[in-house]
Amino acid sequence: MANNRVFIFDTTLRDGEQVPGCKLNTKEKLEIALELEDLGVDIIEAGFPISSPGDFESVQQIAAIIKYAQVCGLSRAVKKDIEVAGEALKHAKHPRIHTGIGTSDLHIKAKFNSTREEILERAIQCVKWARTYTDNVEFYAEDAGRTDNDYLARVIEAVIKAGASTVNIPDTTGYCLPHQYGDKIAYLINNVPNIDKAIISCHCHNDLGLATANSISGVLNGARQIECTINGLGERAGNTSLEEVVMILKQHHSLGYYTNIKTEQLNPMSHLVSDTMRMPVQANKAIVGSNAFSHSSGIHQDGFLKDALCYEIIKPEDVGAEGSKIVLTARSGRSALAHRFKKLGYDFTRNDIDTLYEQFVKIADSKKEVEDADLLIMAKQFKPESAVV
Ligand code: KIV
Ligand code: ZN
Question: Full-prediction pTM beyond 0.90?
Answer without folding.
Answer: yes
